[in-house]
Design brief:
Layout: E1 13-15, E2 21-23, H1 34-41, H2 59-73, H3 79-86, H4 92-95, H5 100-106, H6 108-124, H7 133-153, H8 159-166, H9 182-197
Antiparallel strand pairs: 1-2
């Protein structure tokens, strides 16, 4: 008896522009490419796109801000942990940026997929699958600070309301959120990655990944 398409398990992989096929159920570090991550994150909107400005505020631009804030909190932070901060939302190049209320509705299934993807991304770029608790805590703190400034500057939150949700931000420098277009956001992300990962760019802008 021949099998039909209805008998086959649902497809659980996504094809990337690089040609890689990333399996969401069992992601391999060998199928993770930084160009795919940067490209995807530069086109994923934070806050479900409910932000002001000519451009949607991308996860790529947010990630660069979080790395900057994390370094500001601890200026002795090792370069590899700064890289971890930049990559903290890496899985969203595959699964998108789900707002916190929707994550709560989905429950543990979302966290399981996110955790597997994070581990594959970390291993791909020389980080431990699970970050040290102190580093994880620092990145989450930087993430919440970034969220406060995003909320109050471009997402329509009143400062008092934002403080109740994200806490009172304590930063050493001023932060101004100015959303940029996808190509600029992608290049910002890749520029930080090259610096933190020590990956040189070729003449045409592509990265040598040895």
């Amino acid at each position: 008896m021949s099998r039909t398409r209805a008998d086959e398990p649902p497809r659980a992989w996504q094809r990337m522009l690089s040609g890689r096929r990333l399996d969401l159920l069992d992601p391999s570090p060998f199928d993770v490419e930084i160009e795919d991550i940067a490209h995807g994150l530069s086109r994923v909107a934070r806050w479900n796109g409910q932000t002001s400005g000519a451009w949607a505020y991308s996860v790529a631009q947010h990630s660069v801000l979080v790395e900057r804030i994390a370094t500001g909190i601890d200026d002795t932070l090792a370069r590899k942990w700064r890289l971890a901060a930049l990559l903290h939302d890496g899985p969203e190049y595959v699964i998108g940026d789900m707002i916190t209320p929707f994550k709560a509705i989905i429950g543990p299934d979302y966290k399981a997929v996110d955790k597997r993807l994070s581990a594959a991304i970390h291993i791909r770029f020389g980080l431990p699958a699970e970050l040290p608790a102190t580093v994880e805590k620092l990145i989450k703190r930087a993430d919440r600070i970034a969220a406060y400034f995003e909320a109050t500057q471009i997402a329509g939150f009143d400062p008092a309301e934002a403080r109740k949700i994200f806490g009172t931000p304590r930063v050493k420098t001023s932060i101004t959120i100015d959303p940029v277009g996808p190509e600029d956001a992608k290049e910002l992300y890749l520029k930080r990655f090259r610096l933190l990962a020590g990956v040189p760019a070729s003449k045409n802008g592509a990265m040598h990944d040895t």
